[in-house]
Amino acid sequence: MTLQSLLETPLPDLSVLPSLSVLRGVAVTALGVVAVVTGALVFRVDSMARATYLLAASFVAVGAAVVALHLDYVGVVVVLMMLMEMAVMGVFMVMLMGMNPALMPMSMVHSNRRALVAAGASFVVLTVGILLVEWPTRATAAPDGSAGSTEGGATTYSLGDALMGDHMLVMMVVSPVMLATIVAGVVLAQASGRYERLGDDLKGARR
Amino acid sequence: MTLEVVLVLAAALFSVGLYGALSQQVVVMVMMGLELMLNGVVLAAAGFWWFTAPEPSLQVLLVVVLAAMTVEMAMGFAVALLLHRTSGADMTDMAAELKQ
């Protein structure tokens, strides 16, 4: 496919998305419940390794739910990214905790009651808001349950088109932020930089 | 299957994450709580995308949330490492210099 023909390809019409099939609806609900349960268990189990795996399971469930909502690209990115993050997290736990994190029972909480109250209150407030608000529905009614333009990666196409077109500013902002994160991470985690060794003016004797 | 179901599940994820972020003492566990809160945001945004406005802008918002998660993890680990190196602390209560 030449660049010209690619540019002339009409954008997929996302307004004709099919309605969510019953199967997908059930899948999204079930995966959401799994995500909440595994997420809650993260703070209940008494080993850090299990907590890490449970958090990874929670993220995979949300990623799968996002895929079930026809956001294929974002869902897959969530799963891949979070699995790697949890692997890194496991390494950090072993490193920082200085113990066998898989075997050591632990309960390291503070202000448990206040935290529970705050979390419960936030859930109640959010749920009341969710149930009271009259949410808008999609402007274009879903025609039927048949496969529509979501087939063939249309949503992924539209995301890429947005990022490289109307919403390029987002990409332009996120990229330097990521670069700054890399630099800041190295600076913070470095054992001793030249400013520690040579002083603020970099002229001091080696300490 | 309605938007409300997705949003309530997302609110539950957010609240569980809030509990973890507030109650946990270990820095890495606090970060797990923050991640869970963002996890709820991802689910809610995906629900909004499907049920109210299936247009690219909301997908772009999701990409931004994912970027925020990445930055949070990277910076969190860097700060945790720095804390551990300078004061041997791996718990939030051990890093309360600013409190005094």
Structure, explained:
The complex is a heterodimer of chains A (207) and B (100). Chain A is mainly alpha-helical and 207 residues long. Helices cover 64% and strands 0% of the residues of chain A. Chain A is built from 8 helices and no strands. Chain A has helices at residues 3-8, 22-42, 48-68, 72-97, 112-132, 154-163, 168-189, 194-198. The longest helix of chain A has 26 residues, at 72-97. Residues 141-148 of chain A have low confidence and may be disordered. Helices cover 78% and strands 0% of the residues of chain B. The chains are: A mainly alpha (207), B mainly alpha (100). Chains A and B meet through helix 2, helix 3, helix 4, helix 5 and helix 6 of A and helix 1, helix 2 and helix 3 of B.
List keywords for this structure.
heterodimer; A: 207 residues; mainly alpha; 0% strand; extended; B: 100 residues
- What structural category arises from helix and sheet content of chain B? mainly alpha
- Overall strand count of chain B: 0
Helix content of chain A: 55-70%
Tally of helical segments of chain B:
3
Characterize the largest beta sheet of chain B: strand count, sense, and whether it forms a barrel: none
Helical content band of chain B:
over 70%
The fraction of residues in strands of chain A falls at under 5%
Q: N- to C-terminal separation of chain B?
A: 51 Å
Largest sheet of chain A: none
- SS-based structural class of chain A? mainly alpha
Mean pLDDT value of chain A = 79
Q: What fraction strand of chain B?
A: under 5%
State the separation between the terminal residues of chain A, measured CA to CA.
61 Å
Low-confidence stretches of chain B: none
